[in-house]
Design brief:
alpha+beta; 7 strands
Length: about 160
Amino acid sequence: MTSRKSYENHYWKEESNMVDILHRVGIKSAPAEVYAALTTTERLADWWATNTRGEGNDLGGVLQFRFSAGGFDMKVLELAPGKHVLWEVVDGPDEWVGTHVNWDLDQVGDYTIVLFEHQGWKEPVEFMHHCSTKWAVFLMSLKSLIETGKGAPDPHDVQISDWH
């Protein structure tokens, strides 16, 4: 019998050279409001990192996110108002550089469904597990911001370990 770990290692090597973080969240709002929270520095600072700078609503613009534990620079590759945002990580931890952060938005009833992907990790290292949990924490911060008017951006987010 093959252990789960052996199966996963085999799967990643045989099926794909890259792995992704995937999340789905429904936010009771119109897609335009969620899109604005993904493309304007003021709104990004309200749910992800209070220290956010740059241009999120210009193709080729670079967003700079600074956290208590470090930071990331994201280049804006694609924008479709109310539908889609795609960033490429151009600076930050080695595991992040070259990965893509993809946001797809769809209206379903009263909710905007956010399909989130942090694509292109070279391997599922422990830091990826940490980042997956933190992405979930920040997606809930985004949901809270839109639905209640108050997010929990860094440094006010839920701390899960010494990586922050």
